[in-house]
Amino acid sequence: MNRVVLGLRYSGHSFEGWQTQTHGNTVQDTLLNALEAICGERPVIHCAGRTDAGVHARQQVVHFDTSVHRPLSAWVKGVNNHLPGTVVVAGAKYLGEPFHARYAAISRMYRYYFYASPVRDPFKTHMTWMHYPLDLLRMQSAAAMLVGTHDFSSFRAAQCQAKSPVKTLHRVSLVECSDHCYVEIHGNAFLHHMVRNIMGALFEIGMHRQPLAWMQTVLSARDRSQGAKTASAAGLTLWEVEYPPEFGIADLFNPAQLDFNP
Fold it and tell me: Which residues does UniProt mark as catalytic (predicted)?
């Protein structure tokens, strides 16, 4: 069997999440259809992290095992010929069984893009629009309270299947750009809706609906009912997945590995 590893990028607007569904309108189902056209079978796909409906991915990593051997160009250009414009295979490589897209990952980084404006901007559909002004300094101070190893039950969706709510966040930083902002969250792993629930709390503090200390109160409560409303999926992107360097996963997203030949 050959273990094929793919680097994916996709816009989540038109998909109902990553995970396969009976209706087939997911990233996984779309990729399976394209793979079947190339290798004549529907392999079992494992991904670095399942994304919800409307969530994007700049660097999603998947792997599957197949008895079929194809040149790497077939797994990139061939598969892309059968994919819609909203999802693309950026690169491919063969790796041995020790590699697993999910379990070999060291950390994951998400970015949540948003902007505050009296009216919606039609050219920022990949971001969350906030109608009210936001106090970014308060949001950054609240975000800093989450760094470290904590029980994140207050930011965990009811349907989360993770064995433990204890996760480690290495960095939570807010970056202000000329016409938008984003919060970058880097951690070892994430619970279901964890980033969106964190953003919901940050928005409450940024709008002065809750005091700054409320973030610590919510975190310590370990109770989802004490938190804020889940923020929109529109602004969330799986930005990067980190692996041990010996796997060379970063190469999957390097355009220099590809040529311009059909």
Answer: 52
Tokens representing 32 are 């399976």
From the list 107, 210, 198, the residue with the least C-alpha distance to 146 is: 198
- As annotated, the residues of the chain forming the CATH 3.30.70.580 domain(s) are 2-104+244-257
Q: Which residues pair with 129 in a beta bridge?
A: 115
**Percent of the chain residues topping a pLDDT of 70:** 99
Q: How far apart are CA 67 and CA 2, in angstroms?
A: 6
Q: Is 110 helix (H, G, I), strand (E, B) or coil?
A: strand
Provide the CATH number for the domain formed by 2-104+244-257 in this structure.
Answer: 3.30.70.580
Query: Measured between alpha carbons, how far is 161 from 166 in angstroms, rounded to an integer?
Result: 13
Q: Write down the pLDDT at residue 97.
A: 82
pTM of the shown model: 0.94
Average pLDDT across each block of 10 residues of the chain; the chain has 262 residues. List them in order.
Answer: 95 92 89 95 94 95 94 95 96 93 96 97 94 96 97 93 94 96 97 96 98 97 95 95 96 82 67
Q: How far apart are alpha carbons 30 and 15 in whole angstroms? A: 9
Residue list, annotated binding site for substrate:
110
Q: What is the tally of helices (H) and strands (E) in the chain?
A: 6, 10
Cβ neighbours for 100, distance < 8 A, ≥ 6 positions apart: 46, 63
Which CATH class name applies to 107-239? alpha beta
Asked if residues 236 and 55 have their Cβ atoms less than 8 Å apart, the reply is yes
Q: Tokens at residue 243, please?
A: 């692996």
Marked catalytic residue, from 52, 65, 135, 259: 52
Is residue 29 part of the annotated active site? The answer reads no
Give dist(CA 244, CA 42) in Å, integer: 28
User: Could you tell me where in the chain the CATH 3.30.70.660 domains are found?
Assistant: 107-239
